[in-house]
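Expect chain and fold; see below:
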Amino acid sequence: MPTTSYTAYSLYSYNVSPVIGMAGRITDNGTTITPLPNMKTYSGTPGAGDPQLEGFADPSGNLRIAVAPYVGGTGETVEIRNALNGAIIGAPHSWSSVDNLYGLVLVGSYLYAIDYDNARVVEINPATYNQTGVTYTLSSSFFPAGNVPHGQGLINIGGTLYGLFSIANSSFTSYANSVLVRFTITGGSSITVAANDYNNSFGKNAFAMANQGSDLYVACIGGAQVGGTPNTSSALQKIAFGAANLTTAAVTTVFGYSATYPYEVRDISFNGTTAYVLMGAYDSGFTMRGLLLQTTTAFASFTTINSFTGGAPGYYWAAQYIDNNRILFARGNEILYYNAASTGTPVATLTITGGSLKSAGTNYDTLNDMSYVGSRTTTPLAVRGYRSPTQVSRSARAIEARSIAQGRPELTADELRRLDEIIAQA
């Protein structure tokens, strides 16, 4: 039976001052897909008009959207909104331990937020939407010295929380192996990691997770994202998430860069044993070229759902199987919905134009974030894909980089040298 599902998204503009951003919603009743822009608009200094969205269900199954506009290194001021009508619930909440919200997952009776820049997991009481004071920061013993960890995502598998962390140098130009962590949680009391509940053998610059059967799949870019030269070590890997010793459990590569598919893995999703893989790479002008593919868990033969080998602009790329037998595809600056039973033509293509993802007369030019909230019958899931540190990090370096890039996913070599000079002089 069709059900009404909800997706949250945000737009941003690099072409006006002060900068502006907007959070909106999309509904899908199984027949009609309807964009609902202007749930809230934001403006201010670079970053402040840049709302991050996380969909979740509270312990009673009510669908909610956490909206976190950046306020500048003092923790997030988070608005909790009703996904059904967009209305704010109570006053905004100060999450002082979360400087850059990048995931929000319900486990038991508590919510758990992950902070991108601080590699920190923070417990939230959904009865009040306040922090409980319980936190966990990734142990420095899990990665090589001289690197910085970044929280890429959380996933709840059968009541156990897993976290994924990428490891990079301070300028995001080189990466170490990524780290998967299995948490032990005592709600309201502690978040810990047992001695053998982590694995630091995943590919460099990992960013997405999806579970199927007894395996957890992890996608990695393979190193720093660049224009014109894909990372040949980009891969989709898997691990038996229930292994008693996660540290020694095998990390197996099941699919990745090849002569046939000369791209980086950009997202992974499952509907039973059917898998959806998004692949793409930027050309030298930072236009994305790639494919959305359908396959099985054997990853042996592939059917193309969407080809954008001719190029598509933007920096937000994600693809997930969702309610109503849909495939939700963020293709740069567009959002496409496919019927998974018949993928020849999308059932809806939403663009940054008046009457679609934005209202007439507004100046937004970039799809900045998206979160599938879900329906009353399903659990929300992350729709993250890969976003570069230039577009995600709230560090002073990244904020300056965004002002130089003006909507491009990365900086050129000359711009990187200019950025290093600016930061050195600050």
User: Anything to note?
Assistant: The mean pLDDT is 92.
